[in-house]
């Protein structure tokens, strides 16, 4: 999805609250659309670079049987595909709601400059979503054979053709 | 990827350290393979249900230009596709390294029963990966128009055909 937002850009060359308000308006509208249908969860996100929308996403968890298909993840994948990169420096992500733990991590890995969102995790909890719970809960886990697993990174460091990120 | 591990299962009906050691051995081996090539980051994961491998993944970040394509994310998507569900209750995920913030969140959303991993985030840092940094860093962010964004969840709650997850 690549759209110039006609007219609006002329007086807003740099990121500002006015730009941010515009893009947040767009994602809230998309999320409202999703919330009123059954195929998608009530979330949406867009990614903007130099006042151009370079990626977008709506929630596909239940539609695609994919628990990782949050709006932000899909928007990041879309922007990376459109820009042919795995680094979104210089980009801003607008999300209809506060990113969960997973999406917060994805935003960091994508090296996005900034995040603007509207609803909070508390609001999402009112809709039945576990974002808040996950911030303090922990999946039962154990570490096994660390010594051997750690050697993987020695092999990696000795591979001078590896692509660092 | 659906494989019975021939012979081994007969004496290991229930999850045990012996089972866990076996599956960790597999993911470490896969990660070592990845680490010695340029196409993939040095990580791998598998998902096991009832002693059967129901999903697997290796890192595709640089290969696919997708910062979300960590081994665990790909394994979760693969298992969900194979089992035709967005809920992986009853499944265990084995990862060659400690899941990052993003993958930790994905594991929670997928409702995986357990996590077993080998290398730690400290080990991954030795390989140049920012997992540890991300646990304490924060992307610059702001909340905008929360009141309007919050209404999305009222629409969602009033939609009796919505699929909760």
What does this protein look like?
Two copies of one chain form a homodimer. Chain A is of the alpha+beta class and 165 residues long. Chain A is 42% helix and 19% strand. Chain A has a five-stranded mixed β-sheet. The N terminus of chain A is likely disordered. The interface between A and B is large, with 86 and 86 residues. Strand 5 of chain A pairs parallel with strand 6 of chain B.
Tell how many strands the DSSP assignment of chain A holds: 6
Query: Radius of gyration of chain A, Cα only, in angstroms?
Result: 18 Å
- Tell me the β content of chain A: 15-25%
Query: Which bin fits the share of residues in helices of chain A?
Result: 40-55%
Helix/sheet category of chain A? alpha+beta
C-alpha geometry of chain A = globular
Average pLDDT confidence of chain A is 89
Poorly predicted segments of chain A? 1-14
**What spatial order of strands do you see in the largest sheet of chain A?**
1-3-2-4-5
Tell me briefly what this model is.
The first copy, chain A, has 165 residues and is α+β, with helices and mostly antiparallel strands. Chain A has 7 helices and 6 strands, in the order E-H-E-E-H-H-E-H-E-H-H-E-H. The first copy, chain A, has helices spanning 17-35, 61-64, 71-83, 101-109, 121-126, 131-136, 146-157; strands at 3-4, 44-49, 52-58, 91-97, 114-119, 141-143.
């Amino acid at each position: 999805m690549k759209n110039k937002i006609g007219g609006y850009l002329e007086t807003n060359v740099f990121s500002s609250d006015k730009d941010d308000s515009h893009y947040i308006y767009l994602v809230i509208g998309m999320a409202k659309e999703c919330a009123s249908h059954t195929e998608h969860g009530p979330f949406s996100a867009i990614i903007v670079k130099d006042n151009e929308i370079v990626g977008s996403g709506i929630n596909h968890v239940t539609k695609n049987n994919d628990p990782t298909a949050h709006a932000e993840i899909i928007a990041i994948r879309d922007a990376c595909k459109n820009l042919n990169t795995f680094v979104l420096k210089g980009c801003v992500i607008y999300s209809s709601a506060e990113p969960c733990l997973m999406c917060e991590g994805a935003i960091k890995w994508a090296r996005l400059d900034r995040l603007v969102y509207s609803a909070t995790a508390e609001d999402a909890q009112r809709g039945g979503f576990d974002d808040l719970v996950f911030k303090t809960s922990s999946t039962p886990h154990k570490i096994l054979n660390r010594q051997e697993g750690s050697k993987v990174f020695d092999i990696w460091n000795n591979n001078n053709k590896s692509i660092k990120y």
